[in-house]
Amino acid sequence: MPVLIRFNPTLPVAKKFPPLLYTDTHTSSDMLYFSRVEVHDPFIAFALRGKKFSVQSALEFGRVKKARTFDTLLPREEVLARARKRFGGEAGPAEMIACLAREYGIRGFRIPDDFPAALYLRLRARGLRLETANGPMFPEREIKTDWEAGQIREGNRLCSAGYRTAEQILRAARIRGRRLAWQGRPLTSERLRFAIENTIRELGGNPQDTIVAGGDQACDPHQRGFGPLRPHELIIIDIFPRVSATGYFGDMTRTYLKGRASDAQNKLCATVRAGQRAALRMIRAGVDGRDVHELVQHVFEQAGYRTMHRKNGSVGFFHGTGHGLGLAVHDHGRIGPVSAILKKGAVLTVEPGLYYPGLGGCRWEDVVQVTDGPARMLSRHPYNWEIR
Question: CB atoms < 10 A from the CB of 227, how many?
Fold first, then answer.
């Protein structure tokens, strides 16, 4: 995905050592945040005295240089040659980093907790001091700018387009005994997921691992779903695409039913929505996310929905109420059982759910940005879940 450059992230808060990354932007949201240009092979990047540096191969050098997101861009071939001359014999990333550290007078680096272990050992052997982040590498990622919030809103616009496709297909589907049929064939989780994801790709998104889970499958919240979808059963659809141009995620969940809902299903879905609404009303800067989570638990318990942890799995409400969203689908920030003060500018999902095998599962998920007042909604799509 080409990354559209709109701003440079704030450099990390000064600590004992400057930050060092060695990874690619495809697997590391930290590297994408720091570099603001997509490179799929691991590369060296670090900061020093308010400036950003990177080493790039001839394959990537020209493209990365045009992006103008680094203050200093160094040709890999030249750095490698200097490392071989300094250390002798074969040289690799560790020797190049050690060579640059000597040239720039750097005694050590701060590294992410998931830094490659072999590289860590080689750098230590070359005399560099390394301190791990012991948490987020860039804590400032939790607070989103208006532009970042706009990109997340765009991701949720893609989600909404996917839901419109799902709704069109469910409306067109016919009930054939214990199965749904669409275009003359059984409607399966796989077929519905394929249609949703095709819609999103056509609009500039990159959907992955979309959840379309019906019946008891939906009682495992991360079950992607497989096989025929059945009438009169709840279907959870969770869509979390990436905006191809910028790398930011959207994340929304809606619950559907094709046919006629029972009283128990109606009550379940209404209760989950009531829990979500209660959470949305409470979210604002300075509130403890644990209190929001406990409020949702209280709403569910008052309605008679108990959470139980059984030998074969849990039932009820057994996950957090929300998580951060940004360049990672699970970004910094949480609303759950652990105390975490909500910060102004943070972007979070709000996704309570209830899951009972035999009855089914329901989850409603939207995205908000925390403000000093009412939460700012970054997602929008109707909650019309019963389709006849």
Answer: 13
Among 119, 141, 163, give the residue marking a domain's end. Answer: 141
Largest CA distance in the chain: 77
**Number of helices followed by number of strands (H, E) in the chain:** 9, 24
- Which residues have a Cβ under 8 Å from the Cβ of 90 and sit 6 or more positions away? 84
Q: Quick check: 171 and 134 in contact, CB under 8 A?
A: no
pLDDT per residue as tens digits for the range 116-129: 999 999 999 999 99
Last residue of a domain, one of 90, 115, 141: 141
Q: Is residue 7's pLDDT more than 60?
A: no
Q: Is residue 2 part of a domain?
A: no
Structure tokens at 181: 């049929």
Residues counted in the chain: 388
Domain count, the chain: 2
Are 111 and 20 within 8 A, CB to CB? Answer: yes
Check the CA dihedral 26-31-37-39 and report its sign. negative
What domain range is 24 assigned to?
20-141
For the stretch 59-95, pLDDT in tens is 999 999 999 999 999 999 999 999 999 998 789 999 9
Going by C-alpha positions, the residue among 170, 160, 158 that lies closest to residue 204 is: 158
Report the candidate in 285, 321, 368, 331 with the shortest Cα–Cα distance to residue 140. 331
Question: Can you give the pTM of this predicted structure?
Answer: 0.92
Q: Is 352 exposed, middle or buried (0-12, 13-18, 19+ CB in 10 A)?
A: buried
| Alpha carbons 24 and 247: distance in angstroms, whole number | 13
